[in-house]
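Repro case for the chain-ordering regression, as requested:
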Amino acid sequence: MSMTNSGAPRMLLEASNVHRHYRTGATDVHALRGVSLTVHEGEFVAIVGASGSGKSTLLHLLGAVDSPDSGRVLFEGQDISALSDADATRLRLRRVGLVFQRFYLMPTLSAIENVELPMAEAGVKRPERIIRARDLLSFVGLGARGDHRPTQLSGGEQQRVAVARALANRPALLLADEPTGELDAATGAALIALLQRLNADGLTCVLVTHDAALARSARRVVTMRDGHIISDEAVRSDGDGHTLDGDTLDGDTLDGDTAPRVTPA
Amino acid sequence: MRFTLAFAALRRHPMRSALAIFGLAIAAALLIDMVMLSTGMRASFRSLLTSRGYELRVTPRGTLPFDTEATVGGAASLVASLRAHPDIAQVSASLGTTVQVQRRDLASSAFALGTDPAVQGEYSVLTGRAPSSDIGVQEVVANSALLTTIAASVGDTLTISTGRSAQLRMSGDETRAVLVGEARFLYVPPGLPALSAPLRAVQELLGEAGRDRMSLAMASVRADTGRNPDNSARTEAVRQWIEDTHSRVTAISTETAIVQVEERLAYFRQLAFILGALSLVIGILLVTTLVSLSVNERLGELAVLRAIGVARVGVLQQIMLEGLMLGAAGITIGLGLGLVTARWLNTILRDFPGLPADLDFFVWSPEAAWKALALLLIASTLAGAWPAWRASQLRVAQALREESIG
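-- result from build under test --
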C-alpha cells in the first residue's frame, strides 16, 4: 500500500456521479442514478443492498468490465470510463482481480491451469507461471489439489481457486461479486478469512454481498438502494463483534426487496 | 494455453466432436477422391500415350487407333517412307485382328496384335521374353487373361487360327507358335485375352486379308537438339507432312489425342468439381454448426474469460483454433479414407469392359491433393470465424448479468 505525502492511503478508485442504465428484454433498468464513491488503497469495502439495487453494476464499472452512461470512474488516477475495449481488457488483466459468485472456472482445465490462464494472457513464461500458480494455490490452501479439475473440487475449493486466479497477475484491486453466495456457512467463513488475510497483506478489496457475515468482516460497508448509495459507514471492531459507526449489521443475510436489515447498535 | 483451451472445448463433448470429425473426414475423403478423379484420368491417359515415347499415330484415313477394324494397305512402303523422313526417329507398325487360340483341348478367341517386337509400343513383357523378329521363327507373347483361359504357360506351343477355316471350310489360316512370354498390353482391356506376334506372322495368318496391311503405325519424332525443348512444332510439321504425302492415312499427334480425350472427360471433371465443392460446403457447415453450438453453450464462460482479461483477439483465436483442430483431425482421417475409397472405386471402374489395362481413374497427384486439403483446412478454420467473431464481440457485463440471472 502506498501513501500520499501526508501519510494517508492513496486514492485507488473514485466514481463520480455515475449513471448506468441498460435494457433487459423490454424493461429499461436504471441501475445506477448518480453514484459517487471513493476507495483508498488497502480498504476492504462491502457493498450491500437488495437485489436490483445496482451493486453488481457498480462493481462492473469499478473493474472496467462496463462503462458508465455518464459520470466518470478513476482508477489509480486514470479515467477508465471511456477506455477502449483493448485498454479496459489490459487494465482488468493486470490491475484488477475478479471473483464471481459461480466461480466460473474453466471446467476442462485443472486448478493450476485455471490459475495460469491470466498469466499466460499477460505473457508470463510457462516455468514462471507454474511456480506462481503453485504458490498461489498453496496460499489459498490447495497446494495439493493443483491437478484436479473443478468438478473434482468442492464449491469452497473452487472459489479458492477462483481467488488464486484473480491474484495471478498481482492486481491492485480485488473485486468479488457475491463470493460466498454459493457456499455453506462454514466454507463461506473460510473464504472470508482468506479475503481478510489478503486485505491484511495490503490488497484493496471491494465486494458485493448479501451475506451479513461477509459484510461484517469488511472495514467499510456501503449500502445501496434503487441505484443510490444510501449509507457509507466504517466498521469498528470491538470485543463483541464488528459494529458500524452508526449501526450494527443484524441477521445472516441482507436479502429482500427492502433496505438491508441494519439496526441501531 | 489457447491450444489447451481449444482442445479442452472439443473434448468437453467427445461424442459430438467425434461425429463432427467423422463428418469432416467424409467430406475430406470425397474432396480428395474428386481431385484424384478430375486430375487422375487426364494424367493416366497422358501417361498411357506418352509412356513409349511415340508422338504420332498414323491410322487409316478418318479413324482413331483401333477405333474400327479398318486397315490400310501398302504397309511396308508406308513404314519405309516414314522411316526415311529425317525428323522421324522410329516407326512401329501394327495390325490387329481376332484369332482363335488352342492349347490341347482348351480354346479361346483372342485379340492378336502383329507388331515389330524390337520397336513396339504396345506391351511390356512381364515374364519370359519378347518374340523373335526373325522370319520363320513363330513366337508369341500373351496376357494373363489368355494364359488363364487356356491354362498355358511360357514354353507351351499354341495353335493360332483366324477362325475362318472352321466357318468357311478354308485351309491355310492356321499356324503354331511357341509362347515365349507373358505380357501386359497397354491398350487392351485386362480381361480380354490377347497375344502379340511379329507383324509379318499376323499378316500371313490373315492370308490375302492381311497381306501388307496395318491398322496403326506409331512414330517418334527426333528431339530438337537445339535450345528449344518443346518438340511440338517439329511434331506438327511431321504430322502435316504425313497427311500431305499419304492421302490414305490420318496422322494424329499424342498432344492432340490427349486434348481430344480431355474434351471427352470434361464431364468427369465438372462432376468432380461439383462434388468437390459440395464436400467443401458440407465441411464448412459442419464446423460452423459445431463451433456455433459450442460458443452458445459457454457464453458465460467466454464472458468470464473476457472479464479476467482475455482480449477479443484471444477469444477469436481460441474459437478459430477449435475449427482448425476439427479440420485438421477430419482431414487426417479423411486422407486415409479418401485413398482407400479411391483405390476401391478405381478397381471397380477399371473392370468396365473395353478400357485399356493401364488406364486409372483415380491417380494420386500430391500437389493437387495437398492443395485441396489445405483449402479444406483453411475453410474449416474460416468456418469457425463467424461464431468466433460473435464470441469476441460479447458484451461482457451484459453476458455476466444474464448468466447470474440464468
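Ordering looks correct now. The beta strands of chain B are 56-60, 88-103, 106-115, 123-128, 139-142, 157-161, 174-185, 194-198, 216-221, 249-253.
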